[in-house]
Amino acid sequence: MVSFCLGKKMSLRPLLLLSLSAIACMPSYAQDKVDAEIGTDLVSTYVWRGQKCGGVSVQPVASLSWKGLSLGTWGSFAISPTSNGSDEEIDVTLSYETKGFHVGITDYYLFNNGYPFFKYGGLGSSNHTFEANVGYDFGFLSVNWFTNFAGEDGVNSDGKRAYSSYLQLDAPFKLAKLDWTATLGVVPYNTSFYGSDVSSGFHINQIALKAEYPFALKHVTVPLYAQVVANPSSQALYFMVGCGISINK
Question: What is the pTM of this model?
């Protein structure tokens, strides 16, 4: 869910080496069968990492997973899209997960700058943004780090590729028969990728609280949820509601 709803340069070598080493050492005892999921959400507002990226939107998802390896696609399409397609998006993610640890790569594609899907390039010459992510779920807290490494990206204060990064902490809990998630999102150094960045570096981009009621049948989940999102950096506040249906086989 990338957006141009619109520090210093870091090296990706340690992140990529960590990812490759983790995959090489992963055990092979995960599920042997292929699992599939399809579904869609309807949301009143599309908010991503503290930024409003669209109004009322339909957000379909489809994925396949096998032995911890997953390949999925997610999209967001506004009910009343803008003329430049800035609120239409397709993402493709390849990831691996084992015992709470996960690593992956996402290709974000936005329908906004006029470049076709199979047009790949660097800054200012593609609608694709490629992001690597690594994280761990402790149960009571999940920690995730995201870094753009290719394609369209933001720039730093020197006008160079920022390798824009994002740190997100999620803490789930249960209260009054609902599933809750508290979220903190941080932009660690200067980048124009997050349009709400009004600082010269580190800033908090998202403080959110989500309440969800996951009504579930045998293979079908129908979540109903509401979320409040505050962005201290841009001094913005959002409230959104959503519902969806998910089928797992």
Answer: 0.83
13 vs 43, higher pLDDT: 43
* CA distance linking residue 92 with residue 134, whole number of Å: 16
Phi, psi of 22 (to 5 degrees): -65, -45
Q: Specify the amino acid at residue 135.
A: G
CA angle 243, 97, 134 (to 5 degrees): 90
Report the chain's mean pLDDT, rounded to a whole number.
85
Phi, psi of 13 (to 5 degrees): -60, -45
For the segment 110-124, what is each residue's pLDDT rounded down to a tens digit? 987 678 888 888 888
126 touches 148 (CB < 8 A): no
The alpha carbon of 99 is separated from its chain's Cα centroid by a whole number of angstroms, namely 21
Single-letter code of the amino acid located at 125? S
Give me the domains of the chain, ranges plus CATH numbers: 13-25+34-248 (2.40.160.40)
Q: Taking the CB of residue 210, how many other CB atoms lie within 10 A of it?
A: 19
| Phi, psi angles (nearest 5°) of residue 185 | -120, 135
The backbone torsions φ and ψ at residue 222, rounded to the nearest 5 degrees and listed phi first, read -120, 85
Beta bridge partners of 62: 38, 73
Give the C-alpha separation, 58 to 49, whole Å. Answer: 18
Q: Which among 100, 83, 86, 120 has a CA at the least distance from the CA of 30?
A: 100
Closest by alpha carbon to 111, among 85, 130, 91, 75? 85
pLDDT in tens, 74-88: 999 999 776 666 689
